[in-house]
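Hey all, sorry for the wall of text incoming. These are the two entities for the joint prediction.
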Amino acid sequence: MTKYLIRAMVLPMTGPDDFYENGEIAVVGDSIVFVGERGSAPPDFVPDRIFDLKNDVVMPGLINTHTHAAMTMLRGYADDMPLMPWLEEKVWPFEARMNSEDMYWGSALALCEMIRSGTTTMVDMYIKEEETARAVLETGTRALLSRGMTGLDRKAASVALQENIELFNNYHDAGQGRLKVLLGPHAPYTCPGEFLQTVKQEADRLGAGIHIHVAETKAELATIKERYGTTPLRWLEDQGLFGGHLIAAHCVYLDEGELDILKQYKIGVAHNAESNMKLNSGTALIPRMLEKGISVGLGTDGASSNNDLDMFGEMRSASFQQKLVGSPEDLKAYEVLDMATNGGARVTGLKKLGRLAPGYKADLISIDFEQPHFYPRFSIPSHLVYCARGGDVRTVMVDGKIIMEDRRLLTLDERRICLEVEKRAKRIAFKVFNEN
Amino acid sequence: MTKYLIRAMVLPMTGPDDFYENGEIAVVGDSIVFVGERGSAPPDFVPDRIFDLKNDVVMPGLINTHTHAAMTMLRGYADDMPLMPWLEEKVWPFEARMNSEDMYWGSALALCEMIRSGTTTMVDMYIKEEETARAVLETGTRALLSRGMTGLDRKAASVALQENIELFNNYHDAGQGRLKVLLGPHAPYTCPGEFLQTVKQEADRLGAGIHIHVAETKAELATIKERYGTTPLRWLEDQGLFGGHLIAAHCVYLDEGELDILKQYKIGVAHNAESNMKLNSGTALIPRMLEKGISVGLGTDGASSNNDLDMFGEMRSASFQQKLVGSPEDLKAYEVLDMATNGGARVTGLKKLGRLAPGYKADLISIDFEQPHFYPRFSIPSHLVYCARGGDVRTVMVDGKIIMEDRRLLTLDERRICLEVEKRAKRIAFKVFNEN
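and here's what came out:
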């Protein structure tokens, strides 16, 4: 097994006061075996290679708990529109014309961008998820993948569920455990109760988790109220969907009683601040969720609604949004970093992620701190949340393997991916234009 | 006079549909003489040097209409605190211990960061503004500088006004016109009426503009209501402050009648979205201001409240903030870019800035578009606002002179500046800690 010694400033995310200005991290195989002051690794540890990153801060890789990777294909295709015309006139006609290869290249582009901006694990939901699986395996990152399933058309729903089950059978625990597969019923307003009950049976049978959008918009709230006379989360509870591992994306409109439901069933929340702002969805009650001990991670949502996949931007926006509607004391810098790392580990159920400590996975990133926007160095967490940008990430390791070094991607042909996406996206847009 | 030909994708900001995918820009001395398709510059134009930036988008340099440059010294020193304890326990004790040299190095650090993130003109207000002037002159950027003056202590106010007048006499129009000097009365709640009247007399005598904070917080609104029975903007009007060139920073709390006052006196608004969010100040009525034809520019505010000086981040946050409280159609990408360029030109009164067109100043920046977060290329304005980050800026020209090339700063010793600020800021923080 390869042994690495990494020397850098180390922010292990094991507690607000933990920081090594001259730190070192010892890695053996896919795991961290030591974190501490420089020169204090066990004397019998003889590394195969030493990384001297003395101007970088090393921290755990970021966990993006909700995205639609292949939607990079639609980045900038339509913006600044109300939700329904945006979906009906732009997103859905475009998606209807995307083939499997388009999904592969779109996912690969997302992975380029994610690695470049420090994300090492993503929770994804989309249509041809086996293509995303293929891209993730090649790339070397981690992912929890789900086939997004709407249940309004019974036949299509049944096909989608079969695809999701196949995805599970083919890819769950693939890539030395780097891949996990979840079931992905889309949302309360797109899935009838009967379908959700079938999904839950299959999840229990397979031992799979569930990934679903919940209470994202006021319109969803109104629809569920009208259809079922209750709220989205309560209605899902009534369908018996809860009890296993479940990731609820958005959770913008929940009352205090529903926060108790999240807590009771240990439901993990994927909070998407930028998407919720850009699409005028609203502001989720994150500080209150954290107070109640609910697990909250951060997500970028898809690139068609955000429009980037930069978790550093997401951290900043998450904090700014809460401070705007609450108080300057809400979502302090370290709390936000904690959501993007330890919170993400809890939400994904990947217990060996989210911090740099012996026994944890060697998923880590280095940020180039030798830049004017990181001076003076009063507070590393503050600088990471309020000043850092995705482009400041220099080195990325996942599962003990370097996948970006000094800003060069080692597992992806970035230039080719960009050009393929450009060609394919423009071709689809042209088709939509001509056929509509 | 030096002649440059710049080949690139060109977004001239002369109208929403204006874009040259294969464009070129001809520069003679400090001015643009031609913008158009590649190969269409006048045949008698023989450049001294050709810049082939074919993977970059070139656009006008960004105009930061409100900042406190030297406050980079306090970056990350205190965050996540309520406004008054933050000011009283942290900011003011720190500022009281900053000397002239500290102000110089803090300003130089701000300029490093601004150039790196595409800002070519800033409107500044701070204490030892002659030090900021010195840094700007060395650096080659543009600035409108004002000595921040509070008028509650009569003697201190009189000294500050003398310093601001000296600043005007020494630096107004310095650096081939790159510097302008404004008078900087701090805010309605820190300046008595009599002092503001004196400031206005001096402004008229000198022919100087005025830069002031207005209606930033609810607390200010309450104070002015209690003291004078009116609103901050109306009270300033009563003091006779309006009529000349005036930049009003923040303008978060204005009613419809006050928007008419802005319009009537042609007051320029400096909007600071990130500062207003992070400090829980509130949301300014920007879409309504634009509807009424009021000039609005964007500003970062100081690095102690934002915490960076990245105008790309500011553009994104400005749009997200309005979309969150209004609708997804508010502050569309091109409108935001327009505020950061043409809007800034109107607010500063620098009529030859803000667009790339013959007769305009050669202040321009190039953004490296050969990166995954800029693919596919459906919309350049959308990508610039929703995906671009300060670190994507590659080349910066001000007044026809290159001051950053391929990310190397040509007029500043960045490493020394970072280390000086680190040393000085830590020393001051240590003093505050020991003496308080």
